[in-house]
Amino acid sequence: MATEIKVPVLPESVSDATIATWHKKAGDAVKRDENIVDLETDKVVLEVPSTVDGVIKEIKFEEGATVNSQQVIAIIEEGAAAEAPAAESGNKDKQAPAAGAEEVQPKADAKKADDKAPSSTKPQASGRNDGLPPGARFTAETKGIDASQVEGTGRRGAVTKEDLINYAAGKTPGVSGGARPEERVPMTRIRKRIAERLMQSKESIAMLTSFNEVNLGKVMALRKELGEQFQKDHGVKLGFMSFFAKAAANALAKYPVVNASVDGDDIIYHGYADISVAISTDRGLVTPVLRNVERQGFAEIEQGIVDYAKKARDGKLGLDDLQGGTFTITNGGTFGSLMSTPIVNPPQSAILGMHSIKERPIVENGQIVAAPMMYIALSYDHRIIDGKDAVLFLVDIKNQLENPHRMLLGM
What we know:
Elements: E1 2-6, E2 17-22, E3 29-30, E4 35-40, E5 45-49, E6 54-59, E7 66-67, E8 72-78, H1 86-89, H2 107-116, H3 134-143, H4 161-168, H5 189-204, E9 207-215, H6 217-234, H7 240-254, E10 261-263, E11 266-268, E12 275-277, E13 279-281, E14 284-286, E15 289-290, H8 298-313, H9 319-322, E16 327-331, E17 350-354, E18 357-364, E19 367-381, H10 387-401, H11 404-408
Parallel strand pairs: 12-16, 16-17
Antiparallel strand pairs: 1-8, 2-4, 2-7, 3-6, 4-5, 6-8, 9-19, 10-11, 12-15, 13-14, 17-19, 18-19
Helix pairs in contact: 3-4, 7-8, 7-10
């Protein structure tokens, strides 16, 4: 029985999707719930699993095609057996010779087969490069490279597009000179959407950024004192982000305009803190939302961040995970940034930027001491947030983080 595989129902905010990667081809066997194709929307990558055990009979769209909600993209023959291996598939339409008969190949055909033989030696990269970012995967597939054989020079040893190009050209990583290749690849849907949102923010918001600095000595001491027991009790590490998220939720309650958004000529004040947390992935920056942070404890916040980070790495974030934030926190310090001006994510009106922690000399009680300092930044929509509110908000964040025991007690 033939079963249709359709594009999942897309929410109203997403008009269509792009076929990103087929993990199976026509003739391949599939199991129920096995992912067969990735669909890329403006916000997330959606996995489409098989609904039955069987064999893929037909694939209706190539990678890069645009598809709509509930559109049929593949046909699976339920319960069928997989086709013969590729080496035999070329003869599948030929009848087997009768018993005792001799199969003779015409000389012309033999010569034609000899002419084609060299093409079979080209490496087939399909299926071995699925973990690469789109640009690098495209390079590996078009050049027939097995990325597992390439030495990566990216973050944590990741194989980059440049590594693949150098590998194809026979260049050693880190050695200059030789060919200067270039490659043009289309933007992914997510990258296009990020670009659109950034331009929307630039053109529609009167954005201004205020800065302050925080002494994180007491936070670091508290983490050292309670971190091990915290992890034993809750099964998750006590990180810096939970302190910042909780401090932000408390400050948003005191300065609600920082938590507001603009809708035409109206200002919408949100009586809750749904905080978007920026997470970097190979496909771009995503901002899943921690709901009702004002009601959450540190363990809930940390667990939520860990869960979102894993889903982001695995490409399993859903659209619901990304929608509805009222305020954003981003941590450029993860990559070594000392100071930056983060960009507001409309329709939100403000974003808090964290940065690297550096020991710097400061004055405490008339003495010069070294302290772990961090610059923090608040970019905000000056149409509704005055400089006074922005500065007081940052000062409140600073005071909470420099007195974390009071923050834990809700003081």
